[in-house]
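Translate sequence into structure tokens.
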Amino acid sequence: MRKNLRRICSSFLLVLILAGLAIPLTALAKDEIVYVAPIENTVEKGLYAFLKRAVDTAEEAQAKAIIFEVDTPGGAVDAAAEIGKLLTSADLKTIAFINKQALSAGAYISLCMDKIYMVPGATMGSAAIIDQQGNAAGKKAESYWLAAMKSAAVQGNRDPIYALAMADEDIDLPQYGAGKGKLLTLTSEQALEVDYAEDEVNNLEELLAETGLENAEVRNIDETFAEKAARFLTHPFVVTVLLTIGILGFVLELFSPGFGLAGFVGLSALLMFFFGHMVAGLAGYETIILFIIGIGLVLLEFFVPGGIIGALGFAAILGSFFLAADNVVHMAISLLIAISISILAAIIMMRVFGKRLKLFNKIILTDSTSTEKGFVSNKNRLELIGLEGVAITPLRPAGTVLIEDERIDVVSEGAYIPKGRKVKIIKTEGSRIVVREL
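Result follows.
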């Protein structure tokens, strides 16, 4: 009986000890944190600002890893390069969860992460560098991009030939459908075959289990409204549209008195331009201050004409745009398009509506020095009006006529008058005497 009692007590004590050990282990597992953030739509500078916040938040929380759910057709190369630097320098494990595509800049970003997982049927690749017009970029840009793709693959202990084939259509990999003018795009099965993906997973839960993080606390981090707006407003096409609306609005405002709808729309477009670039981290308050100074100098030109102040103001406005630019070439193209459209609109307005710009009215003399308005020379021979004479030289249209034995220098109304024809004086304006052939 005593032996049975001892056995029962020993077993109970063992259970308590094991339970005591299990509780701290479970608590330790729950202390692990994993962050999940999306990489969606077009890659641009606004995306970098969001991912920077996501990485900083995960690092501050001492997270075990951060998982990026990738589904992007690609985008700006310079933005992708900045994001690549951010990911490779992160102090925690980075995992790409490709669901459903990681093309172009998205493929490069994925290669910059520590691990890559793909859902069945996902694709990665097709990373040729092109400009805003959809044309192949120059040799220097291509060389830089190929080096970046190779470096990303090598850093992740992956064979760089496949990364290069994603960006160079001259690399021949016929077994994967690349070469002879085709870029490499790997399916999930092919990515597993060439060790560009660790495994196929159907969802986030399977990914966590594959990485040993199934017991970790999962925290989602999403884009704020301001970050989403910044991503939209910093897109190269949207930047061109905003600048065009902004400049065109102010040009049209010059045709109407006061500050009306066109000026309000133009100002709103430029404010959205600066708002998006400030949220994306591309512009600071100094950019806004420079823009305001430029506007102030242009307005001052109305009261202190001379041209220098207005030119300085215009230069300050252009400088504020370039100061906010993430790519100077793209900004120059956008401004060129915006200014060209605005000039064309101004020409059309003047021709169709017959109005002058209020700005030009400040600096152009519109009054004529006619006799009817009281402008006369020291000797205005009004007594000659109505007299007749003979042209003693051809009038082309200037020449000389003889009137009452007096030789007088005259001009015709515009038509040629041969020598010897009779003429009549119809108008005098100071020393200018106008005749008409009889």
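Note: Residues 201 and 427 are 96 Å apart (CA to CA).
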